[in-house]
Amino acid sequence: MRLRTPWIQKNAQRLLLGALLLSLLYFLSGSQELSLLETVLARGELRIVTRQGPITYYEDGRGPNGFEYVLARKFADHLGVRLRVTTTDTLGSIYHMLGGPNADLAAATLTITPYRLQHTRFSEPYAEAVQTVLYRRGTRRPTSVEDLLDKHIVVIADSSHEERLRELREDYPDLAWQSIANVEMIELMEMVHNGEVPYAIIDSTTYGAHSNIFHNARAGFEISEPQPLAWAFARHDDSSLARAANDFLAELRASGALDKLKTQFFTGVEDFSFSSSHQFFKMVRTRLPDYIDLFRTVARETNIEWHLLAAIAYQESHWNPRAVSPTGVKGLMMLTRGAASEVGVSDRTDAEQSLRGGARYYLQVKARLPERIGDPDRTWFALAAYNVGLAHLEDARVLTQRAGKNPDLWQDVREHLPLLQRRQYYSTVRHGYARGNEPVLYVRNIRKYMRILQWRSIEETRRENRGNRDEEVPPVQWDLRSFRTL
């Protein structure tokens, strides 16, 4: 006689049904496997792997940001799914993760090279970059590979730059370099700027975006032809997701949105002189620590990114709460007496009052702009109005529209603000003369300061993360003859 426990008797039918369902799923999965695109759509989530950096991916007061993040988020929106981001420190680990549970694609400004094509599938290119040799200002500029022989050169490990150096070594056997795994190109740029290394190789995109910040790092010569940048996919996966990515990129390119996105992240801010760069970095070391907690506190209260608040305060007063201008504006945010009264500031020289008052005044100005103007243009307009006033900003927008340009785009309006200094133009608008060059420079400077502060935050986070994993990272060993890591 066969005995059954009460639990089995009670659940026998349910267990049988489950077994049949599992058998059916097994049969279906064996007979009709989902494509990668269908898998992404079914799970409702696109998974990318990238590296942290000012061009690829980072987080600021507004949340995740960076060229690769924004582009991938647009692709996820296009597919109607969520985006999930995984970061890793090294280029090698990016390729190892492709096709795994966390990486449907890699989005990290990756260069298409012949070697990588043997193991990796790529999307159509979305940009191009040229490999550039950096040298330090004040030293002899290298102009050819011969100038690099027996020199200390640094590159990112497993990068297209290292691949190119291997190709060049076939003709120049004495060519040697040091490869570093867990750094970004901007870090190499800073190393050259600070004189820690004499030469480094990075992409022209990174150089173009940051050359006005790191003045001592200069472009020597190019060691490659223009190379395409693209998303990467596992070679063993089917091409369905890559084809969908190509269709999406083609639409984005045709609409002009791709070029606009590249301009936003790949183009450096203008006219950051050596003296202003040196002064700003000095103040970051000496004064910023006294106020950084205040900036972060007020940022949380007002939902303004703290890097932006700090950049405004630096432009206004160089973070000096007792600063006074010849016209009587004073304090950390250089408020006029009327503006201070309007936002409830009783003591303009009190750093906390001034910062909170300045933040409120900025938000009031921003709220009065037409609702159709979106960010980042809305931020640049608000900053210009903070400097020159909404009335004069509106006059410049009128002149912009008269010229057949877009009055809702900062890049168009900034061309027409200086016209308010010329009678033939200011006499035709409502509020007359204004020193229109000043708000253009004002916005430009704040954007520069904000970008540097954002980058420093990214690097501080990266270094903290590395410090937490120091026990896992083997020390670098040096071959002093060739400057290569062993």
Secondary structure blueprint with pairings:
Elements (H helix, E strand, L loop, with lengths): L5 H26 L4 H8 L1 E6 L7 E3 L2 E3 L1 H13 L2 E6 L3 H7 L7 E7 L2 H4 L2 E3 L4 E3 L1 E6 L16 E4 L3 H10 L8 E3 L4 H9 L5 E5 H7 L6 E6 L4 E8 L5 H16 L1 H10 L7 H13 L1 H15 L3 H12 L19 H6 L8 H17 L9 H12 L1 H13 L7 H7 L6 H4 L10 H32 L9 E2 L4 E2 L1
Parallel strand pairs: 1-4, 1-5, 9-10, 9-11
Antiparallel strand pairs: 2-3, 5-13, 6-13, 7-13, 8-11, 8-12, 14-15
Helix pairs in contact: 2-9, 12-13, 12-15, 13-20, 15-16, 16-17, 16-20, 17-18
Q: What would you say this structure looks like, in words?
A:
With 486 residues, this protein is an alpha/beta fold. The protein folds into 3 domains: 37-126 and 230-266, Periplasmic binding protein-like II (D-Maltodextrin-Binding Protein, domain 2, 3-Layer(aba) Sandwich); 131-224, 3-Layer(aba) Sandwich (D-Maltodextrin-Binding Protein, domain 2); 274-443, Orthogonal Bundle (Lysozyme). Helix content is 50%, strand content 14%. It has helices at 6-31, 36-43, 67-79, 91-97, 114-117, 160-169, 185-193, 204-210, 240-255, 257-266, 274-286, 288-302, 306-317, 337-342, 351-367, 377-388, 390-402, 410-416, 423-426, 437-468; strands spanning 45-50, 58-60, 63-65, 82-87, 105-111, 120-122, 127-129, 131-136, 153-156, 178-180, 199-203, 217-222, 227-234, 478-479, 484-485. Strands 1, 4, 5, 6, 7 and 13 form a 6-stranded mixed sheet that branches. The protein has a 5-stranded mixed sheet with strand order 10-9-11-8-12. Strand 2 and strand 3 form a beta hairpin. The longest helix has 32 residues, at 437-468.
